[in-house]
Amino acid sequence: MDVMGSTPTAPYTRRSHRPQQGRLLSSVPPYSGILTRSLSVPWRPAMYYQTARFDSTQPFSSQNYLNNIDNARVPLIFPSARLALCTRYTPKDWHDAQMTNYSASNQICAAAERLRSDAIRLAREKDEQAFKNNSESSRRLSESINDIEYWEKELEKIIDKMKRKVADVEFKRREAERLSFELEKPLGIAQENLYEREKRQGIDLVHDNVEQELIREIDAIKLSQQKLRQMLEHLNTQNALNRTSLHELERDAQNKFRARVLDSTAHNIKTKSHGINFYEGIENVDNTVSIPESWARFTEENIRRALSEISQSNELLNATDQLIATINNGMWSQWNHVNMSLENRVQEERAAKNNIQAHLEKIRQETVDVEKNIEFLKKTIADKEAFLQVAQTRLEIRTRRPNVEACRDSAMHRLIQEVHDLHAAIADLHGKLSQEENVVQNLLRAKSTLEHDLAIKNNSLFIDSDKVMGIRRALTMSTSEKSSATPISLSHPCDFIIV
Predict the structure, then answer these.
(1) Residue 151 within any structural domain of the chain
(2) By residue range, what is the domain housing residue 81?
(3) What is the pLDDT of residue 3?
């Protein structure tokens, strides 16, 4: 409700436009209580004033006559005088208003001074806090960069070790693969040796020590190839695991590098740096996927896994070296066993050949002697037949003696005895001649047998000494030439595998 005696258009009479009392100006009194107070007049003009309302419940009196009669009008007065009449104040009101304004002004100035001091203090505190927060953030970023650099160095060390280990495993895998491939050559030679020795003839086609050693050599080579194939599978699997671990390490190192670059960029940003801007709500964006413990544990697990793979690779490399050394030693030992057995067999065959040749020469000489003896016997028989002819002729001549002259005298007895002796001698000589001729046949058969056996021995000796030993000797010579052309020295014929 408006104050009596004031116009509705007066701005100081509108309570709704009073300023709000602030927290720091709570002691300042409002202005409207003094400045809008007017004199109490028994009437007010109808112009620019609200009309009075008539209340029928109250009794009619002269005191409320002007206030209760609706549309009651005061006699017309000059407008300026009417307005002056409505704005009259007492000196006390004027003095109180001045004092109130002075007091309010002083209170406002004091509050403003306190507010200014508080603002300066708050600004300094916030400035110090901002510098402190910025320094703390920079320190934390520096610590993060140091942590990242530390793990980067550790990752670089492990990556270098892992790369070298991958190269070592790959080199060892190629060496084992080359060894498995090179084993085909001695395997083919051993099989060819067996095939060549199958060309032996007759009694020389025996399952001797050389053949047994060759079979052992073939079995040893096949077993070595099987072990090498298994080792190659282990090496391939281990190198796949090594490459997987290396990939994880490199990816982790790459992420560490990017994080270090970003943190270094963030650490170097100052208040006067170019490119800084407001990003409203960025503090509410949380795209983190780890905490410091899990972040460090992730890299530690990668390093631990890499070290485990390196350890397993070392064990596998040692096992591969031992396997290669075992195969080389086994091949060398078996190679020597075959060569020694072959040399012994060649010596036996040469001794047998020499014995056969000696016996053959003896038989030939004996055959010649027997043939000479046969000729001698034939001549002797011929000579005895001449004597027999003489004796028989004498007897035949004496049979022509007449009558009593045909006397059985001593001469007759001697001639008869001579004929009998000559017949017996010729019969004995013919018997010896027949025996000699049989001996010649036996000697010829023995000679044929020995010649056939000698041919077999020559064939076996040619196979063992020229073909089998020649192939193995050529392999040894080619290996020696290769070793002289390369800085790797070969200690035995089997070393061609690892050249």
Answers:
(1) yes
(2) 11-137
(3) 43
Q: Which string of b and e fits 362-394 if b means at least 16 CB within 10 Å?
A: ebeebbeebeebbeebeebbeebeeebeebbeb
Compute CA 213 distance to the chain's CA centroid, rounded to the nearest angstrom: 39
pLDDT of residue 79: 59
- Is 286 a member of any domain? no
Q: Which residue has the higher pLDDT, 329 or 52?
A: 329
Whole-prediction pTM = 0.62
Same domain? 367 vs 324: yes
The confidence band for 52, taking pLDDT boundaries of 50, 70 and 90, is very low
Residue at 363 is within a domain: yes
Whether residue 133 is found in the same domain as residue 146: no
* CB-based contact 429:381 (threshold 8 Å): yes
Buried b (16+ CB within 10 A) or exposed e, 162-191: beebbebbeebbebbbebbeebeebbebbe
Q: What tokens does 43 get? A: 């009437």
Question: Where does a domain end: 94, 110, 137?
Answer: 137
pLDDT of residue 254: 94
Same domain? For 67 and 194 the reply is no
Give yes or no: residues 165 and 58 share one domain: no
119, 137, 155: which is the final residue of a domain?
137
- For the four alpha carbons of 302, 303, 306 and 311, in that order, the dihedral sign comes to negative
- 277, part of any domain: no
Which pLDDT band holds residue 12 (cuts at 50, 70, 90)? very low
> Tokens 């395997």 correspond to what residue?
187
Q: How far apart are CA 352 and CA 346, in angstroms?
A: 10
Query: Of 184, 185, 204, 187, which is closest to residue 463 (Cα–Cα)?
Result: 204
